[in-house]
């Protein structure tokens, strides 16, 4: 292999890193704008959240650089250990006095000045475990329903622990990701449809059995029925979209972030972005996600074609997580979906989400780099 080819093989894929860096930059600007008044009021520092987000970015970058150097075989060999760690963390967060309760949900583990959200680790651990399972039992998964039993059972255990927090949004993302991976791995369509039907039925039962979830569903269908209660967030979010019009009111000029829209820098950061940059900025952000997810799926497909199924399945899982969370977050903000507390990957404020997103991206970059090295080696030998 020539020196030039070696250098190209070691350079991160611009079609992956480009959209990701753009999203990260948008997130930094959006959080700085959306949180400035909130930080000034609650912490007497308008840049409180921006500084913390910068620290998270630093931690995430260092972590990603380390992960990028880890061979894919290590992830495959330790996938079970990561799943076990996820179970331990999901159990710890439920222990009174250990897990931190915020707004009725016990989803965070305090670690010094920072907090860890086990559900973020659980998503990636599930992807690693199911990817390894699909490699070991590929034929059974494609030919018989018993091949789906074990991953679905593991998913059910994770979902049960997530619902105890409760974290309904993370449960939906985990289920959608695993069902999508099973389908992309070649599981028979009618088995996957049956699983989805059962899952949707179970989720519907949980929605109607919990008054607060039913209230969210009612607010989603008609937020003006209770404009100062369950429908308040959605109405304020829709006002933000309406004010944005075509090109927005300008960065920093949002009105809805002035305590009209709760969680403006976390779950509803897309609403503030839409208000300040308008339809043009919103569509541009959606296109960035499409470019990133499309490229990850392409890398996964190439991995499968070149005899690296584990890498391919991991890429599929990461793409499904990124696209699912982006779709749900944007859908909630625009009134397309009922309210769910899910972060927007690379953009919303939240250390755990940001770090795990960086880790997943680093793994995909490693997969792509291995593919390029293999391709360069084949060209040099031919």
Domain module count: 2
Helix content class:
over 70%
What's the alpha carbon Rg, rounded to whole Å? 21 Å
Largest sheet features: 3 strands, antiparallel
Question: Quick recap of the structure?
Answer:
With 382 residues, the protein is mainly alpha-helical. The chain is 73% helix and 3% strand. The protein folds into 2 domains: 11-69 and 229-374, no CATH class; 92-209, no CATH class.
What features would you highlight for this structure?
382 residues; mainly alpha; 2 domains; globular; disordered N terminus
List the helices and strands and how they pair.
Layout: H1 3-10, H2 14-43, H3 48-68, H4 72-77, H5 79-92, E1 100-102, E2 105-111, E3 114-116, H6 118-136, H7 138-143, H8 146-164, H9 168-184, H10 189-209, H11 211-221, H12 232-244, H13 269-305, H14 309-333, H15 351-381
Antiparallel strand pairs: 1-2, 2-3
Helix pairs in contact: 1-15, 2-3, 2-13, 3-15, 5-6, 6-8, 6-9, 6-14, 6-15, 8-9, 9-10, 9-14, 10-11, 12-13, 13-14, 13-15, 14-15
